[in-house]
């Protein structure tokens, strides 16, 4: 596996982790959700954006014959 693919996998894992924390906090409610719920979803959107950019970069480089 090349380095870009590994970074891409880590970015996707970060999205899943932040999403799970956000959903868990939302399901529990309480102080954590009131304080961090919106921040977690914003962080998820940021990580998703980074993951999509990396996917496009990976596919583009693979299409050009890059490694």
TrEMBL record:
Pfam families registered for this protein in UniProt: HIG_1_N
Keyword Transmembrane part of the UniProt annotation: yes
Keywords tagged on the record: Membrane, Transmembrane, Transmembrane helix
Source organism superkingdom: Bacteria
Transmembrane stretches, start-end: 6-29, 41-61
The protein's name: Twin transmembrane helix small protein
Chain ranges of the HIG1 domain: 1-67
Coiled-coil ranges from the UniProt annotation: none
InterPro entries for the chain: Hypoxia_induced_domain
């Amino acid at each position: 596996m090349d380095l870009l693919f590994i970074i891409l996998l880590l970015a996707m894992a970060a999205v899943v982790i932040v999403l799970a924390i956000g959903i868990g906090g939302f399901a529990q409610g309480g102080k954590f959700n009131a304080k961090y719920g919106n921040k977690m979803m914003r962080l998820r959107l940021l990580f998703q954006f980074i993951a999509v950019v990396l996917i496009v970069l990976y596919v583009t480089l693979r299409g050009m014959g890059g490694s």
